[in-house]
Every structure is written in structure tokens, then in C-alpha cells.
Specification:
Number of helices: 12
Pfam families: HTH_1, LysR_substrate
Shape: elongated
GO molecular function: DNA-binding transcription factor activity; sequence-specific DNA binding
Largest sheet: 9 strands, mixed
Domain HTH lysR-type: 12-69
CATH superfamily of the largest domain: Periplasmic binding protein-like II
Radius of gyration: 28 Å
Helix content: 40-55%
CATH topology of the largest domain: D-Maltodextrin-Binding Protein, domain 2
Structural class: alpha/beta
Number of strands: 11
InterPro entries: LysR-type_TF_proteobact-type (IPR058163), LysR_HTH_N (IPR000847), LysR_subst-bd (IPR005119), WH-like_DNA-bd_sf (IPR036388), WH_DNA-bd_sf (IPR036390)
Strand content: 15-25%
Family: Belongs to the LysR transcriptional regulatory family.
Order of helices and strands: HHHHEEHEHHEEEHEHEHEHEEH
Length: 308
């Protein structure tokens, strides 16, 4: 067969490509047929048609097994990536077509301690807009159309996104009112040595994240557990542990704000300057599409709440 480019003759039918991709992953026409809900004979025929189309062999058909030829092994990862992109595009179109709500993604501690308690104020003003909260530490990929808005904590360097700062943050020690009452006198920084320090293992910021060693250095004191001790994978867990009287936590002013107002936890050393993190909370959204009116109303509400 003469070598004719696909640009000149067009792309082969998608069903042939799907059949080859599935058969290549399973190295079995039978299992590929089960996945695609067709017969093994149909898979075999579609693969054969694809081979005839290009005038090549994609499989060595042995009596007991299939093996990919060199060109088949070369084509598989490229085709698998293409199929994945097609599925992602279909999902994005489906999400856009069926969406009558706004999805906000945010770190779990921020979602639980700052965002969720404020949702009632949003509902009072925008009762017809449904908001869904997707709490996760992983950075959300907006390409599939699921999420509309993201809250991210970091430096603000998020490529291919519309980025605007919401607010700065600072850190200070907090503990249970019961622990303060049991202490019996005003806390001094050196008094921390009598109590357990509660640490947060930040998932992404790591060594640059606020920690006890930084605060103790700024307060010109020491502690044997400056780097060791009870650890938590989220800030809200460390805060809740402090509320229960388990120890003293170093937490964000934004995360602890409502618990301090409610009297569940108290700030220590209010006369000392809080530790600045060097990071901010940012509002992000895709910058390659025009947001729906509902999305912009949620963004406007977040901006207002960030200033109160």
C-alpha cells in the first residue's frame, strides 16, 4: 500500500482506535471486548481494519497471546493520552451543559473553619445559587470543568489562571481555656516548656511553612519539642486538639478566628507580634473562559467576606 499521510486521507474511525487502545492495554481481544461491550470478533475486525488502513502490523498474533509490535508499542501511549483527552473534553462539555451550581475548591482547614461557617450569609443574599464545596489539599485542575473557583494558599504563582489576593495571614499560639485556668498565672514564653507543642505537617509548603521553631526563635525562647512532638496532617486537627486541651497549637489567625470568638480557644502572648507566614490566600479561576454570572457573584461575595 502506498504511504499516504493521514492529513491527505483523513483520520481512521474512532472505533478502530478505541479497539486497538483497549486491546493493547489488556493484550486480549476478549477483555477489550468486555470493556467496550462488543464481541471479540468485532475488536479483532476493527484492529485488522486499522492495520490495513496504515499498511502495518500492530500485533503479533500468537496462539495463546497477543504481543505488540514495535510500532504498536510506540503508538499505544500516544493513543492512550489522546483517548484520555477526549474523555476529559467530553466530561468538560457535560459539566458545562448540566451545571446549575458553583463549585469552590479549598484546602480542608480553610473550608471547614473559614468558608463553611460563612455560607449562611451568602444564602441570605443569593438564595437561588447553589454552592458546592470541594475540600482538598491537592491543586485542582480546572480543565475538566468541574470546579469554578479555587482558594489557594501560597505565593500566588499559579500559571494559566486568573489570580487575585484575598488576604494575608499570621500565626500565633492558642490553647484551651481550661489549660490557661489550670496554669494559674499569666503565660510567659518560657512557660511553654511545661506543655506539649502541637505541630502541623504541611502537605505542600514544607520547610517554608510557619512552624514552632520559627515562632520560638522570634520569641527568643526554646522548647525541647521545637521540631518533634504530636503531629497532624491538617491545621484544623491541630486546632481541635488544642481545644480539647491536648496541648498548644501554632495556628493561622484566619483558621482560629471563629473558635477564638466563640471562646473555645484562646490566643496566648497577644502582646507579641504574630508570626508572618509570607504566604497569602488567593482566589483563582480559569482565565480562558468567561465566567457565568453565578460564579462572579460568588467571587464578589468572597471578596467582601475577606475584608470583614
Amino acid at each position: 500500500m502506498p504511504n499516504v499521510s493521514t492529513t491527505q486521507r483523513g483520520t481512521p474511525p474512532l472505533n478502530w482506535l478505541r479497539a486497538f487502545e483497549a486491546a493493547s492495554r489488556h493484550l486480549s481481544f476478549k477483555r477489550a471486548a468486555e470493556e467496550l461491550n462488543v464481541t471479540p470478533a468485532a475488536i479483532s475486525q476493527q484492529v485488522r481494519q486499522l492495520e490495513d488502513y496504515f499498511g502495518i502490523r500492530l500485533f503479533d498474533r500468537n496462539p495463546r497471546a497477543l504481543t505488540l509490535t514495535g510500532v504498536g508499542a510506540l503508538a499505544l501511549p500516544l493513543l492512550a493520552a489522546g483517548m484520555s483527552n477526549i474523555l476529559a473534553a467530553c466530561q468538560a462539555m457535560q459539566n458545562a451543559a448540566s451545571k446549575d451550581y458553583v463549585v469552590i475548591t479549598a484546602p480542608p482547614s480553610f473550608a471547614l473553619k473559614w468558608l463553611v461557617p460563612r455560607l449562611e450569609t451568602f444564602r441570605n443574599v443569593h438564595e437561588k445559587i447553589e454552592v458546592r464545596i470541594d475540600a482538598r489539599d491537592e491543586l485542582t485542575d480546572f480543565k475538566n470543568g468541574w470546579a469554578d473557583i479555587g482558594i489557594r494558599y501560597g505565593t500566588g504563582k499559579y500559571t494559566d489562571l486568573h489570580v487575585e489576593p484575598l488576604f494575608d495571614d499570621s500565626y500565633f499560639p492558642v490553647c484551651s481555656p481550661k489549660l490557661i485556668d489550670a496554669h494559674g498565672k499569666a503565660f510567659e514564653p518560657d512557660d511553654l516548656q511545661r506543655y506539649s507543642l502541637l505541630h502541623v505537617d504541611w502537605p505542600a509548603l514544607q520547610s517554608a511553612a510557619p512552624n514552632w521553631a520559627m515562632w520560638l526563635h522570634a520569641a527568643r525562647t526554646t522548647h525541647p519539642d521545637a521540631h518533634t512532638g504530636h503531629r497532624f496532617t491538617s491545621e484544623m486537627m491541630a486546632l481541635d486538639a488544642a481545644i480539647s486541651g491536648f496541648g498548644i497549637a501554632l495556628v493561622s489567625s484566619r483558621i482560629a478566628e471563629l473558635d477564638i470568638e466563640a471562646g473555645r480557644v484562646r490566643r496566648l502572648f497577644s502582646d507579641l507580634a504574630p508570626l508572618k507566614s509570607g504566604f497569602r490566600y488567593y482566589l483563582v479561576r480559569p482565565n480562558d473562559t468567561k465566567p457565568r454570572d453565578e460564579v462572579m457573584q460568588v467571587c464578589d461575595w468572597l471578596r467582601i467576606e475577606s475584608t470583614t
